[in-house]
Amino acid sequence: QSALTQPASVSGSPGQSITISCTGTSSDVGSYNLVSWYQQHPGKAPKLMIYEGSKRPSGVSNRFSGSKSGNTASLTISGLQAEDEADYYCCSYAGSSTLAFGGGTKLTVL
Amino acid sequence: EVQLLESGGGLVQPGGSLRLSCAASGFTFSSYAMSWVRQAPGKGLEWVSAISGSGGSTYYADSVKGRFTISRDNSKNTLYLQMNSLRAEDTAVYYCAKAFSPRGLGGEGMDVWGQGTTVTVSS
Asked: Is residue B30 within 8 Å of B78, Cβ to Cβ?
């Protein structure tokens, strides 16, 4: 069970778009359309932002979108806002009924 | 309101045991798989264990296999994590989380999370 690879940090100015990558292998991200993304503010519980790779739960802004190509999933946030500043984690089904998280990406809104 | 509330965390010596509980409300508890996810101080999220809605199937990360046991009591809408042979590296905030889909394990997404309970393993 290996962790998925995310950039440690990304940044952008208000109104811009950013993309966070999540790289796995053919045994996890590449084999299943079961990738989810979570937003976590300091001291708070994670919040589901994207499920099944590209779907948004009710109540999540359409500024958040997810996609996948090969072994890499991506989260794109458009129209950056100050409240988007947080840590973001990807998670994938990893086979054998196990899950794997990425190491997390700290988003800074400049 | 859909809610999860963890309890049972605390300070325990290396080699000791602790049982965490997660009380669920606002949804049909027995219809959904549940997971425990932990976060060590200043670190990222780590999936620990999952259990099917019926409780008949359980799954573990290699890091806790053989030491932790996940279980649930659907009559009490409560999820448990029995932690034995605790190590310093088990120190973390432990979250319980609900699978998004009744058919899923949580890999599709986990849409409800508790506030977390802190476990500290130290002498």
From this structure: no
> For residues A7-23, b (16+ Cβ closer than 10 Å) or e, as one string?
eeebebeeeeebebbbb
Question: CB-CB: which of B61, B62, B95 is closest to A45?
Answer: B95
Beta strand B10-12 with B117-121 is: parallel
Q: For B49, which residue in chain A has the nearest alpha carbon?
A: A98
pLDDT of residue A1: 64
Q: Which amino acid is at B92?
A: A
- Per-residue burial over A36-57, b if 16 or more Cβ lie within 10 Å, else e, is bbbbbeeeebbbbbbbbbbebe
Q: In this structure, what token pair is assigned to residue B76?
A: 């009490």
Q: Please state, in angstroms and rounded to a whole number, the distance separating the CA atoms of residues B121 and B86.
A: 7
**Cα distance between residue A64 and residue B59, in whole Å:** 31
* Option in B57, B59, B113 nearest A98 (CB): B59
Q: Taking all residues of chain B, what is their mean pLDDT, rounded to a whole number?
A: 97
- Phi/psi zone of residue A41: left (φ > 0), alpha (ψ -120 to 50 degrees), beta? beta
Which pLDDT tens digit goes with each residue over B38-87? Answer: 999 999 999 999 999 999 999 999 999 999 999 999 999 999 999 999 99
